[in-house]
Amino acid sequence: MKQSFDPRNRDLLININGELLHRDVARISPFDSAVQGGDAVWEGLRVYNGRIFRLETHIDRLFHSAKALAFQEVPSREAIKLEIKRTLEANSMRDGCHIRLTLTRGEKITSGMDPRLNQAGPTLIVLAEWKAPVYETGGLSLITSSVRRFAPDMMDPKIHHANLIQSIMAKLEANQAGADDALMLDAHGFVAETNATHIFMVKDGEVFTPFTKACPEGVTRDSVLKLCANHGIAAIVSDLSRTQFFAADEMFCTGTMGELAAVVELDGRSIGDGKPGPMTARLSGLFQDFVANHGDEILVD
Questions:
Q1: Domain end position, chosen among 130, 150, 173
Q2: What total of structural domains would you count in the chain?
Q3: What distance in Å separates the CA atoms of residue 219 and residue 65, rounded to the nearest whole number?
Q4: Strand pairing partners for 101?
């Protein structure tokens, strides 16, 4: 899976601390904490028919992550919403777009790791792009990465931080193997997630997904579990081994960037009959209905 350039994004206006700038001139300082150490938190948002799917939940996670990293200042919830709305309106966007919302600790007075060097307040970046769900509908292939997700006593995965080197290293392995993405295990060898998404499997009509001990608590993942509960589909959260996924009838991944996407191959083994399965199709349909009724504010005409 390789994304391509959408020509509609040629003249994007990007919002940096409230200033709307053409993509060719939008920049942050080399003294910004995101540049100096990946010291930032972020959220991926998707816009459906003028509303942002579960925006309040995403902002909650952004604030929780910023608090865990001891950011001294954060914009208010209303200020963030206003800048998102301004960005969408400036780009005439109301559907079929994805937002990368980033909050950094801000600029430092001089290079260095010490957060006390941050004295200018945070940097808020709203990057909205025309972007349909990024995964192929025919099914993805995964390989298992040698890179493990950190355990909570190493780096708490509930902090949705912008230092994504683990994911990038895993993605490099997937690219080298000719796979779409990489499955990542936790420190004990159980399945955690992929380099970019949460993961589910289906066996005998039941849906399974790993604990989030070694990965963030995904908003799309949570939505799928809610759909299962609301529609009488058995859903079990537990430690799951790679062997259990090999034996699954179906497998799919979830995330804001790609919604629900079937996985048809793992480490050279076909999953089920090697095609997207009926439970994946059912949940994908239910998810589309769900997003139509769970958009939060940010109405864009």
A1: 130
A2: 2
A3: 14
A4: 43, 126
Query: Any residues with CB less than 8 A from the CB of 93 and at least 6 apart, and which?
Result: 47, 128, 130, 300
Encode pLDDT of 125-135 as tens digits: 999 999 988 88
Q: What is the pLDDT of residues 248-258, one digit of tens each?
A: 999 999 999 99
Residue 295 has pLDDT above 80, yes or no: no
Do 171 and 120 share a structural domain? no
Residue 277 placed within a domain? yes
Residue 92 C-alpha from the chain's centroid: 24
**Rounded Cα–Cα distance for residues 196 and 256 (Å):** 10
Q: How far apart, in whole angstroms, are the C-alpha atoms of residue 260 and residue 27?
A: 33
- Per residue in 174-204, pLDDT (tens digit) is 999 999 999 999 999 999 999 999 999 999 9
Q: Give the span between the Cα atoms of 220 and 200, in whole angstroms.
A: 12
Name the H helices within the chain: 33-37, 55-68, 77-90, 165-177, 219-230, 242-246, 278-292
pTM given for the model: 0.95
Answer yes or no: is 135 within a domain.
no
Examine the domain organization and report whether 40 and 154 are in the same domain.
Answer: no
**Cα 196 to Cα 182: distance, rounded to the nearest angstrom:** 8
Domain boundary among 130, 162, 177: 130
| Domain interval for residue 89 | 7-130
